UniProtKB/TrEMBL annotation:
Signal peptide: none annotated. SMART domains: RHOD (SM00450). The keyword Chloroplast does not apply. This is Sulfurtransferase. Pfam families: Rhodanese (PF00581). Residues 20-138, 167-282 form the Rhodanese domain. PROSITE patterns: RHODANESE_3. InterPro entries: Rhodanese-like_dom, Rhodanese-like_dom_sf, TST/MPST-like. Keywords: Repeat, Transferase.
Length: 283
């Protein structure tokens, strides 16, 4: 069943009123690259939204793949999500501590990839929540396991080979990185074999879609203006990419808000493409 595009977000005001509703499950998806010496799980234990459990994108991932936080199998996702106390009947709310909520955006996308559309991102994340002096707690939540059934949606995921095929067939590839990382003049926290971007990609930094003061996603009319200014036609197929498959999910969420629900995210992103000697690169 299709959902209203507005369902992709919930406000802090709404969530504060529905914290104890049956069927609401909240995930703290805070993630940091190891080079930052920060740890999302440690921050969760320090303070988190009442009733929330921690979701680690590096653990709910294909651990056999050397690339960062690649999608797990449907079976593994279902098992790990079930251990977090989530069932298919639940409305899942995701948030993190990053400006804009990029890691939570990936978790939003992951649930949709595995057939669960009843998922929304907390607009403004933990930062807006705490600025408003909404409640938080320190005690970790240990949920009772639940049963979750996952069904993989291949149309929401693109491999590097599929990205190449999509470009050749006229699809638009949108890269969510900042301009310096897109053109290879600014190093990334990930160690890439090559710098630059996939030839034919359009650069639309995901941070341009977020209010700089509040961290909330821009309203639909402003989002549409950003995509239009970048030369992106919402009526044509779109694939999103980035450094490691995180911020590209924020582009997918923004497009979902604009009524484009079947955007494919390049899971391996530049982390994968840069290692493939047979794939071209541009600066």
């Amino acid at each position: 069943m299709s959902r209203d595009p507005s369902d992709a977000l919930v406000s802090s005001e709404w969530l504060a009123q529905h914290l104890t509703d049956p069927g609401i499950k909240i995930l703290d998806c805070t993630w940091h690259h190891p080079s930052t010496n920060l740890d999302g799980r440690t921050q969760y234990r320090g303070r988190h939204l009442p009733g929330s459990v921690h979701f680690d994108i590096d653990q709910v991932a294909d651990k056999s793949n050397p690339l960062p936080h690649m999608l797990p199998t449907a079976e593994d996702f279902a098992h790990k999500v079930g251990l977090l106390g989530i069932s298919n009947a639940d409305r899942v709310i995701v948030y993190d501590r990053h400006y804009g909520g990029s890691a939570a955006g990936r978790v939003w996308w992951m649930f949709r990839v595995f057939g669960h559309d009843n998922v929304a991102l907390l607009d403004g994340g933990f930062g807006k929540w705490t600025k408003e002096k909404q409640p938080a707690e320190m005690t970790p939540v240990r949920p009772a396991p639940a049963s979750f059934m996952a069904s993989f949606r291949p149309e929401l995921v693109a491999t590097s080979a599929q990205v190449q095929d999509a470009l050749q067939s006229g699809a638009q590839l949108v890269d969510a990185r900042g301009p310096g990382k897109f053109d290879g003049t600014q190093p990334d926290v990930f160690t890439f074999k090559r710098q630059g971007h996939i030839p034919g990609a359009i650069n639309l930094p995901w941070a341009d879609l977020v209010d700089p003061d509040t961290g909330v996603l821009l309203p639909p009319d402003a989002l549409a203006a950003r995509f239009s200014a970048a030369g992106i036609d919402l009526a044509k197929p779109i694939v999103t990419t980035c450094a490691s498959g995180i911020t590209s999910c924020m582009l997918a969420l923004a497009l979902y808000r604009l009524g484009v629900p079947t955007v494919a995210v390049h899971d391996g992103a530049w982390a994968e493409w840069s290692q493939l000697d047979d794939m071209p690169a541009a600066a």
